[in-house]
Amino acid sequence: MMTQRTLLLSAAAAAALALAACEKAAQQPATGAPIASLPLAQAAPPPETVAPQADQLPPAPPIRRVSAPRQPVYSYVDDAYALGDAFGDSPPDYTVDYDGERPWIWRASNGEYRVVEQTPDGWREYYYRGDGDYPFLVRDSGYAYAYDGPTLVEVYDSYGRPYPNYSQRHVDFASRYLVRARALYDAALHQQRRAAYAADWRDHRNDILARQQQWAAEQQRNDDWRRIHEQRYVQDRQRQAAWEQERAQRQAYAQRAAAVIAAAPPPRTDERRRDYVDERGRQDLQRRQAEVAAQAAREQQMQADAQRRAQLQGQDQRRQAELAAQQAERARHDQQQQQAQTQRRQTELAAREQERARAEAANRVQAEATQRKLAQQEAERQKHSAELAAKTAERTRQAQADAQAKAQHAQQLAAEQKARDAARAQHEQQQAQAAQAAQARNAERAQREQQQAQAAQAREAARAQHEQQQAQAAQARQAAQAQHEQQQAQAAQARQAAQAQREQQRLAQQQQAEAAQQHAKAAAAQAAAHPPQAKPEHGKSDERRKKPDDKPQP
Q: Which domain holds residue 134?
């Protein structure tokens, strides 16, 4: 009984706290988990692995540089700053296995991405707008590179200021970063998503936030950047509202994950890997120090040249003092603004902490009142249960008596029903026997009808076969007669052809005879018209050669 009572009180208290939390949350923006976030991994993370530094990335095709950007150069770093500011100190949404490392990935509600990987030089960040795999900004430990699709727009220093004197080495790094950025974006979308380790985020969170704070301070100091930021804030209120909603959601998510991050075990160490990374870090530090020293020397030389030109042009110390005073005034003004902004943030944070404390106190008071009310309800319920138990016992005795009487009556009814069931069963058996006899008669009649039908089918089949044979014989006779008639016709045609040929030959011979006769008549007529002169010797000779039976040839 006490266990059940405890459970009821705990459930009521939890319900009251949940109700109070819901009432408070109804007045705030949505604070659910980000759209792409996975729960943080609470196990000890494996030893850290780093991505290749810029000069160790694979060579890439030369990148094309634009001569005139389509938008102000500060808009690229301002967009990256706005995206990072919206993410705040929220842990990574997830990570993927890529090229032997596990980069951190954040995805905003509007589809924009930030990918962060650790290198021997420090952290390298990739920013994407979400409408393609090209980044709009890549930031390493010393510089930032702005892109417009596959082209390079600008190079910035570590503070986000344009760096117009960049060298071919920076262009080569920009080309390599672009290829790696596209590959990382493809992995972020298509590789298997894995949870980021809470301990890794706890150990490196301040590094990421420090880079964001560096840009925030420069934005306040830099008039050009601040002017672009304020103009874009006024022109695109809808985008700013989306970032504010993203920021509120991320802050709530970071607060809920704070306990998990704090309780995460430390990462497993790998001394060999750490020595390798430290050695690489020392080498890279020496290289960067040499580059910084060379850059400082170049800048000093440029300053010296500027001073000589200033002396030649007649610039005096008064103008320099005025410029220094203006810079000091600007620095003091910027410092005052930063202090005021920091104070406002601290005041707002203290107010939120006080509000949360008041809400928690109100929740505790409400929970205690709920517990007291539940205790009173439990006492009343126990009293009611006792009264109900007494009534239940009386009803039980009455029910037993009623049940006994009903049982006797039921037995009597059962005996009567049994007799009726036996009579009905005998009647049904007789009906079944009669039905079986009727089925037998029906079966015999059906068998006779089937035999008759089979005999009729056999007769019909024999008759059909006989008719088919007769039809086939008639077809054979018709075919033979047709063949005989065809042969007679062919013989008649042959006789007609022969007769026609003989007739043609006769006509031809007759025509030849008539032609010969006409020729002879013509010759005789011609001889009669021109008789030959008398030549005895020749005539005698002719008489001798002429025979009595000679006749003119037709």
A: 29-269
